[in-house]
Amino acid sequence: MVTAGKTEPEQPQPGEQESPQATSAGSANGRPVVIDPDLDFIRSLSRQTGESYKKCFQCGTCSASCPISPDTNPFPRKEMAWAVWGMRDRLLEDPDVWLCHHCNDCSVNCPRSGRPGDVLAAVRRESVIHYAAPRFLANWLSKPRFVPLLLGLPTLLLGLAIVLREPIGNALGLAAPTGQSIVYSYSPMLPHWLLNSFFGLFTLFALLAAIIGLVRFVRVIKAPHVWGATGPPNHSFTRSAWIAIKQLFTHEKFTLCTAPHSRPLSHFCVFFGFIALTVVTFWVITGPVNPLLKDGFVYPFSFLSPWKLLANLGGAAVFFGCVMMLRQRLRNRDNAGGSTFFDWAFLWTLFAVVVSGFATELLHYLRMAPHRHVVYFIHLIFVFALLIYLPYSKFAHVLYRTTAMIFAEYYGRNGVRPGVAGSRAQVGGGESRDEASTTVE
Q1: Residue 25, beta-bridge partner list
Q2: Residue 24 is assigned to a structural domain of this protein
Q3: Does the structure show a pLDDT above 60 at 29?
Q4: Vertex 104, ends 217 and 110: CA angle to 5°?
């Protein structure tokens, strides 16, 4: 029989987990809780985690060992119970899933190798798919068989743009002769105006999709029962956003991780390297109309240009960050966490963007044609896959996690302690959230 608030829970049997029959349980405030296992969700988690989460017997070690889990209603113990019972809707509305940084302290300390960190990562993947618009694109990004289609689509579109560049440019008055006497262009076939127009158009679509997904997410996590009895807002929303963003830039929570792996350093390199590349890209896009460029805009930049140096430094940081991530995922899975295709697709795409970018630059300076044109085209395909598919890939965590962190700060949920409180081991939830401590007797 399902009860609430038990201190000695027992793991449900597999047969009970997969029963399609809904179960009614008593809650802390006497209101019934209906558990209707989502069998498809259970199967999906099992494929991604190898069913290790079914070993959980609700001892609370994961919550007790997590340095960023709040003392009240901590994670990931309650999420493990919900996962075992296939409570998909409960997990998809849970902001704690995104507050987890997958530092993997919980998995390292789990006495039964339940790997809660991997379970929460799998739930985040399900969340991206659930909130995405259109949803089928997120499904494609999580399945290997769609890789040819996902890479073939930008290849076709960019190829079509090259074929039609002259008539479009002439009609819009944008085409200009591309000579190589002054500036040796990366590729005459891909002039600056064409790339700005091409990526600008699809970036607008990606931005719209990201906004729709975030609106859906915010509408769910703003529900009163999601945050429980947290009292009045902790700060103004603006102040909360500032605190959350500062935590992201300082990597404050990553530094609390005690599991022996290089994730904090690798994430730091990728994070700031990508910011450097974004700044340079924005500068290039706005170059022709940027009032700060007093001496005129000439692109590509010379090798000693401050912007070229910043781009190369950022690219090198992303490269070394990706190498560290690949190494730790391949050689240190127990401490660094497991990886699914959803993880690998994002990581290898980011790595391919950086490698093809450096290859394009090298071939450009060596004046190797047509090699530089081909490699530049390949580079742009991976850039498209990284940026335009952002709302549907693992890259979307930068949107959802930031949003969850802001709301957690706003509602006073984002409590971080330098030391782990002993009381966490015996807290499986709280009376403020009825299902939080649901266990099996």
Answers
A1: 33
A2: yes
A3: no
A4: 115
Q: Give residue 310's pLDDT.
A: 93
CB 46 within 8 A of CB 14: no
- 282/187: higher pLDDT: 282
Amino acid at 386: L
Q: How many structural domains compose the chain?
A: 2
What are the tokens at 212?
């729709």
Q: Indicate if 222 and 309 belong to the same structural domain.
A: yes
| Sequence-separated (6 or more) residues with CB below 8 Å from residue 282 | none
d(CA 131, CA 214): 8
Structure-token pair, residue 197 = 């127009």
Tell me what pLDDT residue 294 has.
Answer: 59
Angle formed by the axes of helices 237-250 and 397-410, to 10°?
Answer: 130
Reported confidence tier of residue 8, pLDDT bands at 50, 70, 90 = very low
* Residues 409, 279: Cα–Cα separation, whole Å: 28
Rg (CA), the chain: 24
Residues 106 and 165 in one domain: no
Same domain, 34 and 175: no
Domain that holds residue 20: 2-134+418-440
Q: Are 277 and 388 found together in one domain?
A: yes
Report residue 183's pLDDT band, with 50, 70 and 90 as the boundaries.
Answer: very low
39 vs 20: CA distance, rounded Å: 7
Nearest to 128 by CA among 346, 408, 395: 395
- CA 44 – CA 119 distance, rounded (Å): 11
For residue 433, report the phi and psi dihedrals to the nearest 5 degrees.
Answer: -130, 110
Q: Phi and psi for 35 in degrees, rounded to 5?
A: -105, 115
Sequence length of the chain is 441
The tokens of 66 are what?
């997590």
Burial class (CB in 10 A: 0-12, 13-18, 19+), 187: buried
Q: What is the pTM of this model?
A: 0.82
- Cα separation values, 404 from 58, 101, 174, 227, 414, Å: 25, 12, 43, 11, 9
Q: Are 46 and 38 in contact (CB under 8 A)?
A: no
The single-letter DSSP state of residue 12 is P
Task: Please check whether residue 406 lies inside any domain of the structure.
Answer: no
Terminal-residue alpha carbon distance, the chain: 6
